[in-house]
Amino acid sequence: MSSHVNRALCACAVVAVSVLVAACGQTAGGGDSAGTYPQARLSIMAPADPGGGWDETARALQQSIREAKLGKGAEVYNVPGAGGTLGLSQLVSKQRGKDDQLMVMGLVMLGAVETNQASVGLDQVTPIAGLTQEDEVIVVPADSDYTTLGDLAAGLKKDPASVSWAGGSAGGTDQLLVGQLAKAVGTDPAKTKYVAHDGGGEALTALLSGSVDAGVSGVSEFADQVQAGKLRALAVSGDKALDVGGKTVKPIKDQGIDVVMTNWRGIVAPPGLSDKQHKDVVAFVEKLRATPAWQANMERFGWAPLDKSGDAFDTFLQSEQQRVQQLASELGLAG
After folding, report:
1. Do residues 155 and 232 share a domain?
2. What is residue 309's three-state secondary structure?
3. What is the pLDDT of residues 96-153, one digit of tens each?
4. What pTM did the predictor assign?
5. Which pLDDT tens digit goes with each residue over 24-73?
6. Handedness of CA 10, 11, 12, 16 (dihedral sign)
7. Beta partners for 248?
8. CB 253 within 8 A of CB 260
9. Domain end call among 255, 290, 312
10. Are residues 251 and 167 in the same domain?
11. Does residue 324 sit in the same domain as residue 271?
12. Domain at 209, CATH number
């Protein structure tokens, strides 16, 4: 055989081996399995309109990924509607097995699944990690006869319909907190008088006009009016005292009522991820949460951390689902 033929055969063999090695290094999705996750630009869904809490969280993740130079960057897109359940449905039905598709979610979505009788649930996604949590604050007008949480709880227990509450959307964190408070003081949550509003601004107007007795929302929504002396903060809903408008406000549980509830947010992936994909995404989010860029965003928005990942976040999510399902039923919101 001529040397020319030998050289040609050797060249073909090298090409064949190279092709085989390259092919073996590819995952089903076309990425290099030996590479570092993520191997493509991430897509992060905010299942709500721009400007809300989920959107802020998604864009804070995007900014932190960019500043920390992790992966290949991220894009954020919005799928608003039905308390996030439209976005949830899209993630479950259209993104199965894709580890570069993520969605921000939280306690509000659990309530929306129940109140909207959604056909999909968070038991159908892949839990990744907790991100943030924020206290709620219970306030009354400054001239209210309810001067303490104990006064308000006594009125609620005597006649739950005698106390009117202003808060956000039906089935959201605000109403769930009112329901849990009613239950804890020994009265029927379904008999509470809750007036849902589109946002904290409308709830604030109702409070200042005297058309409701008490209000529930995130601390930031009412802090300025507490500082101005127009509202009185009676309690926060987490497990530590907080500054609200220059006033140190005790938790509900430290005032003799066994209630702790925060408006938390987390991140999930579609169903159908392999064990390796799941571990890779969890590790990436854990790395992201530790970056100075993410910590700066936490401080900027006044968020507290919800440092639960992987199996721990899955267990937490299941526990929260059970709690919300029970509260929604007791409030008459579920089916």
Report:
1. yes
2. strand
3. 999 999 999 999 999 999 999 999 999 999 999 999 999 999 999 999 999 999 999 9
4. 0.86
5. 333 333 333 346 899 999 999 999 999 889 999 999 999 999 999 999 99
6. positive
7. 243
8. yes
9. 255
10. yes
11. yes
12. 3.40.190.10
